[in-house]
Amino acid sequence: AKYRKIQLLKDYVDETEKVVEEYNKEHHIDNSVLVNGRRQTNLGVFRAYLTNYLKSLPTVNQDLTCMVRQLQPTETGIPLELYFFSANKVWVAYEGIQADVFDHVLAIIPEFDLRVFQNPSGADLHRIGVKIEN
């Protein structure tokens, strides 16, 4: 229900919910047990949000490929790849567009109950060491 309030997701959530409900009904799924049937996931909704977000940006070339890919899971998580082309071909502008997209992605990840993984290093390891000693 909370994702339906996000402007770029309302139609996706409504349509996906309808498809899932129809599938579960058609296959006589007992929905009282969560593992039965199909469900929407926060990761799937996040991918849809990112796709719609990229398609809403005037700085993204809408005539070329634009997609959000879920890559093979690893021991550090499930990587996502944002594949799109800038509408601006000037290198400095392109770097700014890319940075703005990733600033937005990093800012909204918590809204989807997801986290970014980063290998600990430097100050992270120092903080861990301090906590272990104390």
Characterization of this structure:
- About 45% of the residues lie in helices and about 5% in strands.
- The chain is flat and about 55 Å long.
- The longest helix is centred in the C-terminal third of the chain and has 18 residues, at about 90-110.
- By secondary structure, the chain is mainly alpha-helical.
- GO terms for molecular function: mechanosensitive monoatomic ion channel activity.
Condensed summary:
The protein has 134 residues and is mainly alpha-helical.
- Tell me the number of structural domains: 2
Instruction: List low-pLDDT spans.
Output: none
Arrangement of strands in the largest sheet: 1-2
The CATH architecture of the largest domain would be 2-Layer Sandwich
| Overall mean pLDDT | 93
Largest sheet: 2 strands, antiparallel
The radius of gyration computed from the alpha-carbon positions, rounded to a whole number of angstroms, is: 19 Å
Series of secondary-structure elements, N-terminal to C-terminal:
HHEEHH
Q: What is the CATH C-level name of the largest domain?
A: Alpha Beta
How far is the first residue's CA from the last residue's CA? 43 Å
The secondary-structure class comes to mainly alpha
Protein name: Mechanosensitive ion channel
GO cellular component, one term: plasma membrane
Organism: Bacteroides uniformis
GO molecular function, one term: mechanosensitive monoatomic ion channel activity
